[in-house]
Amino acid sequence: MGNPLYDRLFGIHAGKDTPFLHLHDGRTLTHATFLDMAAQIANALSGFELEPGERVAVQVEKSPEALALYAACTQTGLIFLPLNTGYTSAELQYFIENSGAKLVVCDDAKAQGLAPIAAAQNARLETLNADGTGSLTRRAMGMLPAFEPVRRSEDDLAAFLYTSGTTGRSKGAMLTQANLLSNAEMLVQQWRFTRDDVLLHALPIFHTHGLFVATNVILASGGAMIFLPKFDLDDMLRLMPQATSMMGVPTFYTRLLGDDRFTGDLTRHMRLFISGSAPLLAESHERFEVRTGHRILERYGMTETNMNTSNPYDGERRAGTVGLPLPGVELKVTNPESGEALPEGEIGMIEVRGPNVFQGYWQMPEKTAAELRQDGFFITGDLGCVDEDGYVHIVGRGKDLIISGGYNIYPKEIELILDDQPGVLESAVIGVPHPDFGETPVGILVPEPGQTPDLDAILAKVQEALARFKHPRKLIILDELPRNTMGKVQKNALREDYKGLFTKD
Ligand code: MLC
Ligand code: AMP
């Protein structure tokens, strides 16, 4: 039985002196060196007396060691729970408590703030910094560079990823080894990844896109990554000629297109550009082709399902669509009220089923039941239709979600804080178009009678509670919120009124 996720992503590279990670500082780590590092960390983890299936909450900067920690969790049967590096202590407290993590790994700079939270949970705290130093790697250094993977099956849980919800509370999506493996191996085929590929990797590794799509696909194919700490335009332009492929959120593409130094010459060595996590404007798609001669391949996925649809590698890559359901993934469009399947071409709720679909939300049976049907179909919350050629179009969201630069923001989480502030009667947070991030949150406040809320003090409160990317870029005071006859706030009307705040039209 072995440990399928470890064996098929990592173990297959044992002893190979082939390049795996090309680093920002010019160093290259081979597969063998990386696996040695992972085994040393696995040996350190096994000294912590954790049982397979326990959660390891990880909030660390992107580094080879951070990736080796993912491999080590797989090897030791621990559940990897990566967290956005922007989260505040208040946000982290929830994730650590909710997941019941027994090991927390963070940057030295965050250790003091997290120590009481970890202690309250009886969790061990170790550190890992951006440069690979920290208590975890100090322990690992003296360990043997070999570790016999703990036996696991494809049905065992491998990772939790937290995803926010319409009620404001995040939910831990439980993903099995099979969820991750089936998607990664199928994408290698679909997108034709081979050991000759070099992926320009500038995404964070705490989300589906950077970890389970980009990294797992490269691991499964035996290729290499140019592994950058973050998206930096100068680095991207400098290193692109050494890559064969890139995966990015739409902001990557608009930033590249916004720079005159980005020319077709730089992309001559590239065979594939992939976009996802947020809608790519058809205009960006077309401008990119004019500039480089490459047609971006757009795909659609989510935390709970990994990848669901993709434009074809060979066939037509259709701008403004997310392509066709991937092999093994069933997709239907249903009436959001009745759940009945709709005829071809009609707009409704997108539902998906397949080996990629998660197991449910950790310890939230009601939320799981509300979104994951008994028959295995997951109700995505995305509205769309399927055209006569089978291409899926996403036309909107049934869920009240804002996507800023590929990060999801649920308005409720911000509204709960705004509503609590002195002088505020109620609030509504909406997403408006933004030239760089695609969308950005704006907060509309209704004051209590006779009050004038202090906007600076309110922003300071939001900053204390929430990660930077969730902060409203603007707060606006209105006498009242537009409501329909049922009394429901008409966010569409607000979005219409403020759509030009950050764009010319
Ligand atoms: C950073 N900031 C953001 C932001 N990223 N604000 C809003 N939205 C974002 N996405 C903050 C910074 O903290 C900074 O704060 C300010 O905004 C401007 O920063 P910047 O230097 O312009 O941002 P940068 O660091 O360059 O990051 C932008 C980005 C990054 C787009 C490159 O956010 C990114 O890599 N996004 C990818 C997200 C991703 O991987 N999503 C996949 C989810 S999985 P200050 O204080 O300086 O103003 C998923 C499923 C699927 O969705 O289908 O893939
Ligand atoms: P997350 O919960 O962070 O995984 O985000 C998943 C959501 O991102 C999906 O439900 C969609 O709303 C959105 N998304 C992902 N890829 C695309 C895409 N190519 N086009 C439009 N929306 C997308």
Describe the structure.
This protein has helices at residues 4-10, 31-46, 64-76, 89-99, 108-120, 135-141, 177-190, 208-221, 233-239, 250-257, 282-292, 365-371, 411-419, 455-465, 491-497; strands at residues 19-23, 28-30, 55-59, 79-82, 103-106, 124-127, 157-163, 171-176, 198-201, 224-227, 245-248, 272-275, 297-302, 306-310, 324-325, 330-334, 348-353, 378-386, 392-397, 402-404, 407-409, 424-434, 438-447, 474-477. It is of the alpha/beta class. The strands form 6 sheets. It has a 9-stranded mixed sheet. Helix 2 (31-46) packs across helix 3 (64-76). The chain is globular, with a radius of gyration of 23 Å. The chain starts with a helix and ends in an 8-residue tail after the last helix. The model has no long low-confidence stretch (mean pLDDT 96).
Quick structural gist:
This protein has 505 residues and is of the alpha/beta class.
The overall pLDDT, averaged over residues, is 96
DSSP summary, beta strand count: 24
Radius of gyration: 23 Å
In the sheet with the most strands, the strands line up as: 2-1-10-9-11-12-13-14-15
For the largest beta-sheet, the strand count, sense and barrel status come to: 9 strands, mixed
Strand content range: 15-25%
Any ligands, ions or cofactors bound here, and which?
malonyl-coenzyme A, adenosine monophosphate
Name the helicity range: 25-40%
- pLDDT < 50 stretches: none
Total count of helical runs of at least 4 residues: 15
Distance between the termini: 59 Å
Would you tell me the structural class of the helices and strands? Answer: alpha/beta
The shape, in one word, is: globular
